Amino acid sequence: MATDSAKVMGVVTEEAIAEPARRRDGLVDGAVRGDGLLVLGACCAAVAATESCDVVDSEAVKKALEAANAFHNRAADHVVCSAGTVEPGYFMDQDVEGFRRSMDINYFGCLHVVHAALPAMIKQRETERGESGGQIVLVGSAFSLMACIGSTQYSSSKYALRGLAESLRNELKLYDIRVSIFYPGNVDTPMLERELALTPPETLTIEGVSNPLSAEAAAQTLINGVAKGHFSITTDPLVYLLRILSNGVTPRHNTVLEAATLPLVIVIQTAFLVFMDAVVEYSRWQRAKQRRNEKKDQ
């Protein structure tokens, strides 16, 4: 089962992040609403064609890619994988099928698109000597960098997507194809409204009160990050600090600056860890108190 955002791939003529010398083609999946739709609108002068498919179905994805490439008579130069779904909740209240569904859309949906797009991109790179091999962007989440109560289903799939991005970043240098991963915080979309309605109170407390970023601003941040050649792209200072802390063996934006700020980031991380655990322990105490009161009333 796929959400609407996982069912559509927008095939676009992309100019905002392409080389200005010539027109290049791009692919945005998950472009029916939310981040994907705004990326599509922000980076495109015109929509040349669309191909609809369920990204969970790898064969359907291949056929959509073939149709898109045939329409443009070339492979995509930019591929943005933004299809996704989120179902917050307590781990013990969620069934295993929900975890499979989340992995099918958030991880395998993106993997299917990249795997289907790469052969034509690689072949095109070999025939167009001197040209860049193209760009792949995977849309992760702040929950690709941290996890807490209520996020087990979503974070698991987004951590997997991060692993895919980091592996591909290194491997696709074989073909001069660049890879980036986008770590947005909360973005003001219909999906966020549904997410907040399902989110446990402890998770809401940990996330804190913050104004979600507009989808337009998130899309522009992604485009700007790609234009700067960043592997990791974030939307706000707190997620940026998370990225510094969890960078792994991937490129940094400014190695000297990040090394200098790392001690402060570790202090902030430690304080937040204490806060995060305290929220859950307080909830446990409240539940125990409620059970005691219920027994007294019986």
From TrEMBL:
The keyword Ribosomal protein does not apply. One of its GO terms (molecular function) is 3-dehydrosphinganine reductase activity. GO terms for cellular component: endoplasmic reticulum membrane. PROSITE patterns: ADH_SHORT. One of its GO terms (biological process) is sphingolipid biosynthetic process. Keywords: Membrane, Transmembrane, Transmembrane helix. InterPro entries: NAD(P)-bd_dom_sf, Sc_DH/Rdtase_CS, SDR_fam. Pfam families: adh_short. The chain crosses the membrane at residues 260-282. It comes from the Eukaryota. This is Unnamed protein product. It comes from Phytophthora lilii. The lineage of its organism: Eukaryota, Sar, Stramenopiles, Oomycota, Peronosporomycetes.
